[in-house]
What we know:
alpha+beta, two-stranded antiparallel sheet, 5 helices
Amino acid sequence: xxxxxxxxxxxxxxxxxxxxxxxxxxxxxxxxxxxxxxxxxxxxxxxxxxxxxxxxxxxxxxxxxxxxxxxxxxxxxxxxxxxxxxxxxxxxxxxxxxxxxxxxxxxxxxxxxxxxxxxxxxxxxxxxxxxxxxxxxxxxxxxxxxxxxxxxx
Length: 153
């Protein structure tokens, strides 16, 4: 062992170098977001909770009942039941199981009517698993909640 190594070990040079890195981050700008107080703004292409769009004037669903979103879904988490009334498809059931969803966005891309969208809502934590099962009424209500979320920011 050389004299240089002995001086390095006795003066704790490596420890001081490591502490200098820690000191730089200690006095620098913080990158942590204090979550409940501050909320991050999602990126423009973020895919959050689903919503079904309705016509603002009439309140009728934009969904034409083509079942394309149900067919293309890789996790098979979309369930649609339709019935035909006067040569017009009526959506009886439109459910999404968020516990199975992988948030790929295929349902939004394939929809010819632009009826299903993925909102910017990212706070999906809950204590009850039944809240992950979204019915048609819940999905329509998400449209309003998603609009409020974007206006608030």
